[in-house]
Amino acid sequence: MTAQSTNAKPLRIAGYRPADRGTQPDYLYPPYSSTVKRSPMQPLVRLPWSLSEVTGPLFGLDRIMANDFDLTKQHAGDPIGERIVVSGRVLDANARPVANTLVEIWQANAAGRYPHPRDNHNAPADPNFTGCGRTLTDAEGRYRFVTIKPGEYPWRNHYNAWRPAHIHFSLFGPSLATRLVTQMYFPGDPLLEYDPMYTSIPDERARQRLVSAFDWETTIPEQALGYRFDIVLRGRDETPMENDLPKEARP
Amino acid sequence: MSLKTSSSQTVGPYLHIGLTWLVTDNLTGPGVSGEPVTIEGRITDADGRPVDDALVEIWQANAHGRYDHPDDTRDLPLEPGFKGFGRVPTGAGGGFRFTTIKPGPVPSPAGAMQAPHLNVTIFMRGMLKQLATRIYFPDEPANAGDPVLASVPPERRGTLIAKASGNGMLQWNVVLQGEGETVFFEY
User: Fold this and answer.
1) Rounded mean pLDDT of A115-136?
2) Does residue B142 belong to the interface with chain A, where contact is any CB pair within 8 Å?
3) Closest chain A residue to B82 measured between Cα atoms?
4) What is the pLDDT of residues A43-66, one digit of tens each?
5) In whole numbers, what is the pLDDT of chain A averaged over residues?
6) Is the pLDDT assigned to residue A241 strictly greater than 80?
7) Residue tagged active-site, from A166, A207, A234, A236
8) Do A53 and B7 touch (CB under 8 A)?
9) Is A163 a catalytic residue?
10) DSSP per-residue codes, B44-102
């Protein structure tokens, strides 16, 4: 994909197509009150594509332990809650699988409590649940976690604010341009429409793509319900582009 | 066929649960060449309040200017002990610190060389998608010819360049909003 390069010749590097319109929140979204003081006000400076942006850290299996994908097997006892299987594919916007990429997740326990010093919610802690998992996608971009369904929990953003049940996802993909942190939600959650993180996404259809689907195929009889959640990272331009073309001029 | 890109969401306040396992505050190791450097800094918000729940990720070339990535096909040495990835949380006071080596220069699209720089990605509660910025090095002659620095308004350029802070360390602070706001990039 990438042009051969020497230090003497201009580098022609295939960049990544911008995320689709309406899919990404702005930095400032006042209904989510913490964005008000933490969002830049100056316009972002657009970088031309160079090796700095189209490369990125790649991780292997060397640091991943056997039980890292199964959040129900990380302690001596079973965690409280409804066991679920969360699986799906990581693809790019060109519909190609993103193979061998690191997926990190974290979540609350079944009662909506995180084992974190800043979580003061008076719901019960669960000594058998840390809520942290990680895995690599396979050659087809597939990943799979076993966990328990996280609980909803209150937060102080506005009066009677509750976060819908969610699992945090962190993905790298092949480059800095594909780095993505997102959240997976559950179908039918009545809290979604009141959640300013969810509604920060302008396009209603894009919001809905963060809602997982109940999945018979991955449901384990008498053991765990399956939820399917596919993730799409930015896709590469098919051909190397002149880097000084503005984004709007790209095909 | 094309698919719609998934939406970004914040890491939230409890990011440490999922992301601490990969904290890497020392990117160097045995056999790694290059000039060691420790960079410390703090992140502050629009009111100058420290951000003590952020995560900073670093990505950089090695001392030869080579990225440990298949897209970097140039005939420059890779070093097995150097991946070029760092991840550090901010602590009380909004501070972070990591140790690495000064990278070599990497090419720019126009064929000139970019000055040595670290690529920085920042995550935090209250940030719905990550911020991208860079750290350049002080007293680096190549900064004058760096096309990215040149593309930034001169009065804001200094936010991208670390400062010597005595005791051998470099200091590089991040101002999220307001006076002295750090330059952030999109790509």
Assistant:
1) 96
2) no
3) A57
4) 999 999 999 999 999 999 988 998
5) 92
6) no
7) A166
8) no
9) yes
10) E-TTS-B--SEEEEEE---TTS--SSTT--SS----TT---EEEEE--GGGEEEEEEEP
Answer whether A76 touches B (CB < 8 Å).
no
**What is the signed CA dihedral for B151, B152, B158, B164, rounded to 10 degrees?**
-40
Residue B150 phi, psi (nearest 5): -65, -25
Q: Is B81 on the interface with A (CB under 8 A)?
A: no
**Would you state the pLDDT for residue A239?**
66
Q: Does domain A33-242 have CATH number 2.60.130.10?
A: yes
pLDDT in tens, A162-171: 999 999 999 9
Q: Give CA–CA dist B114/A155, Å, rounded.
A: 45
Total count of residues recorded for chain B? 187
| Lateral strand order in the sheet of B117-124 | A45-46, B185-186, B131-136, B117-124, B54-59, B85-89
d(CA A150, CA A165): 6
pLDDT in tens, B14-26: 999 999 999 999 9
Nearest residue of A to residue B67 by CA position?
A: A55
Complete domains list, chain B, with CATH: 15-175 (2.60.130.10)
Q: How distant is the Cα of B126 from the closest Cα of chain A, in angstroms?
A: 4
**A233 → chain B, closest CA residue:** B5
Q: Do A181 and B69 touch (CB under 8 A)?
A: no
What is the ipTM, given to two decimal places? 0.97
CA distance B43 to B176: 7
* Residues paired with B78 in a beta bridge: none
**Active site annotation includes A114:** yes
Q: How far is CA B107 from the centre of its chain?
A: 17
The DSSP 8-state label assigned to residue B128 in this structure reads S
Q: Are A174 and A101 contacting, i.e. CB atoms less than 8 angstroms apart?
A: yes
* Closest CA of chain B from A35, distance in Å: 4
Cβ separation of A23 and B182 shorter than 8 Å?
no
B183 contacts chain A (CB < 8 A) = yes
> Does A40 sit within 8 Å of B126, measured CB to CB?
no
For B3, which residue in chain A has the nearest alpha carbon?
A93
Distance CA A165, CA A113 (A): 11
